[in-house]
Amino acid sequence: MSIPTPHIEAKNKDEIAKTVLMPGDPLRAKYIAENYLDDPVLFNSTRGMLGYTGYYKGKKVSVMGSGMGLASSMIYYNELFMFYDVETIIRVGTAGSMQEDVKLKDIVVATSACSDSAINTDVFGKYHFSVTPDFNLLLKASEKSKELNLNTHFGQVLSAEEFYSNMSEEISENMRKYGIMCVEMETYGLYTVARRRGKKGLGLFTISDSLITGEADSAENRQNAYTNMMELALEIAIG
Ligand code: HPA
Fold it and tell me: Which end of the chain is more exposed for a tag (fewer CB within 10 A), N or C?
């Protein structure tokens, strides 16, 4: 396949930076481009999945929506890595807390992800592949978090196939006991595709709701918390 791809209409590779930040929501991508990047230029609107390229502190960075879930997001991860020579994708999402000390507005960095997805069973048979981020990106996330004075949690996340899942109380309690920090729906796909294509991925989240207390953050609070995560992601992106 060549460019443009079925889902991305950019005609030249240089319309997209080597590092792409990816929220699930395409309107969030637009907001990030308009509020954080200098001179943002739209490179995709196919299926409304808005993607922009601009500059952060003088360095070229792109931001694009991924849609929700492994199925949607993996289409974009694959096409960006395979056909646009993207080297690094940083997911900037929201997640539901599964631990008492992971509070609303906190930031989580996924040191690994587990999932009920079967995408790796064809590849590894009975051996469960552990998906992990690029180690240097992870190190950078730790360094930049300290520099920015952020209280960031590092740990395993659950990338669930279903938002409205039937997970039993027993299994969710086991997940808590084993230290799974939060639930979201894309990072297992990002870490798998990054390894498959020999590229780099990292997932960062702002906690938007809690599966323990049932509380959800207000839109206003979410915006402030998102600002911290975006700064962290952009600092990681420019190295
Ligand atoms: N479940 C799955 N994905 C999510 C959640 C959740 O509770 N919150 C934010 N993304």
Answer: N
Beta strands per DSSP E along the chain: 19-22, 38-44, 51-56, 59-64, 88-97, 107-115, 152-159, 182-184, 200-210
Question: Residues in the chain with pLDDT < 50?
Answer: none
Can you give the pLDDT at residue 59? 98
Helix (H) or strand (E) holding 140: helix 135-147
pTM, two decimals, is: 0.97
Neighbours of 54 (CB within 10 A): 19
Q: What is the pLDDT of residue 212?
A: 93
Mark whether 134 is an active-site residue: no
Q: Ligand 1 centroid vs 154 CA: distance in angstroms?
A: 18
> Which residue in the list 116, 134, 209, 217 is annotated as catalytic?
209
The protein residue with its alpha carbon nearest to ligand 1, atom 9, reads: 95
At 31 the three-state DSSP class reads: helix
**Which residue's entry shows tokens 């906190």?**
106
For residue 181, the model assigns a pLDDT of 98
